[in-house]
Amino acid sequence: MTDLDYTSLDRILPAATSSPDWGDVMSRFRVEHGRRRRRFVVAVTAIALVAVVSASALAVRAFFIDKGFIGLPPVGATASTPKRGDLVLSAYGVTGRSRNKVWVYRDGRVIWQREYPPGRRERPESANAHSSGLLERRLTPRGVELLRSEILSTGLFGRDRELSMARPVPFFNYIHVRNGGRLVRVTWHQHPPYRRLADSLYPLATREQATALQRLTARVTEPESWLPASAWRDQQVRAYVPARFELWYGAWPLDVRLSDILKPLPASARELLRTKRPRRVAGRVGSPTNLVPAYAYVFRVTTEEARSLRRALVAAGLDVDWRIDDVALAYRAEVRHPNAGAITITFVPILPHGGPAAPGG
To answer: pLDDT for 42-96, tens place per residue?
Structure first.
């Protein structure tokens, strides 16, 4: 048997209460060995747990760095900061067959959303084949001013204008830009085919105005195509993660009272919405020559409240509204009412300036 260093054994074994013999030594060794084994297992488990948590965190972070999403952000995702921002410009228009929206803020954030036609190959950062989701990157102060100056240089933004276009355009396009302390809006529409209707709406844009606005649409909604690299503080594309949502809740196309459209919802969802003060929005939907009334109730909720509501809707078996599920999270419920056969509830992200990022045009 190999000689033992009893001094070393005394340092690593638990203290003996009497004069030890060899059996006592081995007993004490087994006790300490068991403790060390347990400490080793605990340490390995802790390391594994940290690795799993870190991997999960990195997975969420990677998702929100370079890829958009539709609906509510995963639990643990950090909202875009700052949560509030001053809007410098916004635009909506069609370029390359995609419908584009963009919002630019004084802090440099450029937030955009693109919706693609069927069959078009989406970009790698897009949420799916139909929508990019909301994405963001950051300009320098000089970059923001370059973009704003590009719009103002046309001379069309000294006052609000509403124009119609002789050439084919979507139902409406617009550019807002801050000029002299206020947001100036220029909107243009497809010129209606009927002269009487056209004369009662908007003046026809000149050829020069139409050319300038079409050029601006491309440059404002795709600033990465022409701004220099020095104009960007961060060119890395990230998903925009909202801190709040609007719930657009209504029956289309006819007027239905809020109490009637709340009835088909599960009790937990009804209670959540009843604690909110909705804003009633009236509008019209349809073609330019056949518009019908449309009404909705708009609720503002936090992301956590939106998650609670979604869980209630899913538990109640409500169907996802397949008509818009590629570009927005929405649910549909049947309702027994003489003026409507169904209601929809759509989750709409709120942007830093407080406005909604609605799907569509």
So the answer is: 444 444 444 444 444 444 443 445 689 999 998 888 899 999 999 999 999 888 7
CA distances from 19 to 10, 22, 33, 297, 357 (A): 12, 10, 21, 84, 80
One domain for residues 195 and 132: yes
Cα separation of 135 and 116, whole Å?
Answer: 15
Element counts in the chain: helices (H) and strands (E): 8, 14
Query: Which token pair is 236?
Result: 């890395």
Task: Let me know whether 153 and 210 are in one domain.
Answer: yes
Does a structural domain hold residue 77?
Answer: no
What SS3 string covers 189-211? EECCCCHHHHHCCCCECCHHHHH
Question: What is the chain's length?
Answer: 361
What distance in Å separates the CA atoms of residue 80 and residue 130, rounded to the nearest whole number? 23
What is the Cα–Cα distance from 175 to 223, expressed in whole angstroms? 14
Same structural domain, 140 and 255: no
> What does DSSP assign to residue 122?
P
Residue 79 lies in a domain: no
* pLDDT higher at 22 or 148: 148
Q: How far is CA 91 from the centre of its chain?
A: 17
What CATH number is attached to the domain comprising 209?
A: 3.30.1560
Euclidean distance between CA atoms 145 and 334, whole angstroms: 49
* Global confidence as pTM: 0.76
Token digits of residue 140? 């320098």
Torsional class of 131: left (φ above 0), alpha (ψ -120 to 50), beta (otherwise): beta
State pLDDT tens for residues 234-265. Answer: 888 999 999 999 998 876 555 667 777 777 78
Q: In what order do the strands lie in the sheet with 172-179?
A: 161-165, 182-190, 172-179, 87-95, 98-105, 109-115, 135-139, 232-239
Q: How crowded is residue 9: how many other Cβ atoms within 10 Å of its Cβ? A: 14
